[in-house]
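Re: [ENG-882] Designed sequences occasionally contain unexpected residues at chain ends

Forwarding the minimal case from QA. Structure tokens:
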């Protein structure tokens, strides 16, 4: 998608819809099992050394290099 950016580009508090993941099968399967898959909506709680997301009622911490391979677009909260 033309306006998609890595999750690491979004500010704290941004509501983001995941567009696609540039991951290998194992990482994509593991994150998908935790609810982070194409079309999922999440909120950026922290964007520092680790990226912390809220997805549904859960919080998910991602290493920065992994978060840089997840692409999304901001949506209204």
């Amino acid at each position: 998608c033309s306006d998609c950016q890595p999750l690491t580009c979004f500010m704290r508090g941004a509501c983001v819809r995941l567009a696609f993941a540039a991951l290998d099968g194992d990482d994509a399967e593991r994150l998908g099992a935790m609810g982070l898959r194409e079309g999922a909506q999440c909120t950026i709680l922290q964007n520092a050394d680790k990226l912390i997301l809220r997805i549904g009622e859960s919080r998910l911490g991602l290493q920065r290099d992994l978060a840089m391979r997840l692409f999304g677009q901001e949506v209204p909260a």
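QA comment: On inspection the terminal residues look reasonable. The helical segments are 25-33, 64-67. Proposing we downgrade this to a documentation issue.
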